[in-house]
Design brief:
Largest sheet of chain B: none
Radius of gyration of chain A: 20 Å
Largest interface: A-B, 18 and 24 residues
Strand content of chain A: under 5%
Helix content of chain A: over 70%
Radius of gyration of chain B: 23 Å
Shape of chain B: globular
CATH class of chain B: Mainly Alpha
CATH architecture of chain B: Up-down Bundle
Order of helices and strands of chain B: HHHHHHHHHHHHHHHHHHHHHHHH
Number of helices of chain A: 1
CATH superfamily of chain B: Amino acid/polyamine transporter I
Largest sheet of chain A: none
Oligomer: heterodimer
Order of helices and strands of chain A: H
Number of domains of chain B: 1
Structural class of chain A: mainly alpha
Strand content of chain B: under 5%
Number of strands of chain A: 0
Structural class of chain B: mainly alpha
Distance between the termini of chain A: 69 Å
Helix content of chain B: over 70%
């Protein structure tokens, strides 16, 4: 496989994986955050 | 047999048991105050099903988007239209067409908590309820023939298990023998319909979520394994070059952009109304932006994997470059069921590779088909039919109206063309619904529940969609006119403008004539219900 082909594969597949990873990190992170949310503190008196 | 006939049968059984609500023609738009005795209230308070978790709706939505088109169309079109240049155009299409539309659908479904018909009534006002019915019936029209196609995939998986795909097989003869046997095509159509109806019958959690959580990872795993196998074959590099290295001059071709946008429009599920229906069962505060991004980018990534598999194998095993070009020019069905069959048969380990390939195709087809069944079922449920009965009705309609496509591939091609292009109209209607509701208001509400704020680009894209629609639509019409210069008006030609316009007109006439009826009978959702104050006994 020549360098040009490897570069373009990295550009397209890597780029898409990076964006998808970004979205998935938020999606899954949000879920964990919600599940581990402590009960809301009482308002200060 | 026309898909539009389905509405008649749906409406007659779905709507009969409910008394007419106090509706009058002067019912002002966006003012759907209901009396305390209104039948809507009873139905709307029934407990709603819900996806079990956030990951469940993401899996369901990605399964919906990833279909047979990712495996048999994306590789073919990408190789034909400039490889990397096509991928750049696809990425632009994702950002300015697919993601804005997927977000709009998600927003409409999760806010209205109703299927397409109810969502359009609540977003565009009762006078425009027909738009939701149009969208739903276009997708139902696709469901009828898509069930036949999913049946083909199941059939090829079954026969490949028996070792029938072996060296020396004549793909064309094998295909002709199958397609020329109506009993067999109808039987496998029935299998696809029966399975999808069963999944939808079992409900969101017990049916769709349970099945899709197995099917999607299985599909991805198989595709990745087969793609890795393909790219390690000697000679596969040439196929990867066709896929990834940009042919820069192609970017100046209008045809490349049109092919890329149609690929994006049809492959991601944007404009089908399926996302709208899945969002009905989402939690109230789902992250619309992130979910839509995951769906769109996953869909194209699966296309990359499938393209590496198809093009890698094709260029590694094809006896000559001419054979490879012939295969790519044979259309979706020709490439998959004729040329790929011949190529897989020659591979070492064909007894394992061929069943795995057709299993992946069957899984991709069935997961998308399940989404279409859910669309029909949810819309019926909004008319007061319970889920199990609705799933059975949709299954019966899908089987009956799919039979013409099962016995005639010309009829199937015609339906694919007519309702495939009509999806663009559904996409246009979705953008118009958001414009009517208020683009900035919608954006603010989407941002209120999303971790990633969507910028003004979204509003610009929503307003740009009618322009993109006009360009792609004009191209589709131009294509059909050039295909039949003398007969383009003839409704009996498979791909003529005449057949397309005639069938759309019948559908438009039907949904417009049923508009008030549908607006009255579809149940109320959170946007139409107003809180009722408790009985007032005085100061």
């Amino acid at each position: 496989m020549d360098a040009e082909l490897v570069l373009w594969i990295l550009f397209f597949v890597g780029g898409y994986l990076l964006i998808l990873g970004y979205f998935l990190r938020i999606a899954l992170g949000r879920k964990e955050e919600k599940e581990s949310d402590p009960p809301s503190a009482p308002p200060p008196e | 047999m026309d898909p539009v006939e389905a509405l008649g049968s749906f409406s007659s059984f779905a709507l009969a048991p409910h008394p007419a609500p106090p509706y009058s023609a002067s019912w002002p738009e966006n003012d759907l105050t209901l009396s305390p005795l209104h039948p809507f209230r009873i139905m709307a308070e029934q407990p709603k099903e819900q996806w079990g978790s956030r990951i469940a709706i993401i899996i369901a939505a990605v399964s919906m988007a990833v279909g047979t088109g990712n495996i048999w169309r994306f590789p073919r079109v990408a190789a034909e239209w400039g490889g990397g240049a096509f991928l750049i155009a696809v990425t632009v299409g994702l950002v300015i067409w697919a993601i804005p539309l997927l977000m709009s659908e998600f927003f409409m479904g999760s806010k209205s908590r109703l299927g397409n018909i109810g969502a359009f009534r609540d977003f565009m006002g009762p006078r425009n309820t027909w738009a939701g019915a149009f969208m739903a019936l276009v997708t139902v029209g696709i469901m009828f023939y898509y069930a036949v196609v999913a049946g083909w995939c199941v059939r090829y998986f079954v026969v490949s298990l028996t070792g029938a795909i072996r060296p020396g097989i004549d793909g064309q003869d094998y295909w002709n023998a199958f397609i020329g046997n109506p009993l067999e095509t109808i039987a496998f159509h029935a299998v696809a319909v029966g399975f999808s109806a069963w999944v939808v019958y079992r409900g969101i959690k017990g049916g769709l979520e349970r099945i899709l959580k197995i099917f999607l990872p299985a599909l991805l795993l198989i595709l990745i394994v087969l793609a890795l196998r393909a790219v390690t074959l000697p000679g596969s590099e040439e196929g990867l070059r066709y896929l990834f290295v940009p042919d820069w001059p192609s970017l100046q071709s209008g045809r490349l952009w049109l092919e890329a946008f149609t690929q994006v429009a049809w492959s991601t599920g944007a404009g089908w109304g399926l996302m709208m229906v899945y969002a009905v069962y989402a939690r109230e505060k789902e992250d619309i932006t992130v979910n839509s991004g995951v769906i769109a980018f996953s869909d194209v990534l699966v296309g990359f994997v499938a393209a590496a598999l198809i093009l890698g194998t094709l260029y590694a095993v094809a006896p000559s470059p001419e054979y490879a070009e012939q295969a790519l020019g044979a259309g979706n069905v020709g490439l998959t069921f004729i040329y790929v069959v011949e190529l897989l048969a020659t591979l070492p380990g064909a007894v394992v590779v061929a069943p795995l390939f057709f299993l992946s195709l069957a899984l991709a087809g069935l997961t998308s088909l399940i989404a279409m069944f859910e669309l029909g079922t949810t819309n019926l449920m909004n008319f007061g039919v319970d889920r199990r009965r609705a799933a059975v009705y949709v299954g019966m309609a899908a089987f009956a109206f799919g039979i013409p496509s099962a016995v005639s591939i010309t009829f199937l091609d015609n339906q694919d063309y007519v309702w495939g292009v009509a999806l663009l109209i559904s996409g246009l209607l979705t953008s118009l619904a958001i414009v009517k509701y208020g683009v900035e208001k919608a954006r603010a509400e989407i941002n209120a529940t999303s971790d990633t704020n969507v910028g003004r680009w979204w509003s610009v894209c929503i307003r740009l969609i009618p322009v993109i629609f006009l360009i792609i639509f004009s191209w589709a019409v131009y294509q059909s006119v050039t295909m039949y210069p003398d007969d383009w008006w003839n409704p009996l030609e498979t791909f003529s403008t005449g057949t397309m316009v005639l069938q759309w007109l019948i559908l438009f006439a039907l949904v417009l004539s049923l508009n008030n009826f549908l607006a009255r009978r579809v149940e109320a959702g959170p946007m139409t219900r107003k809180p009722v104050s408790p009985p007032h006994d005085g100061p």
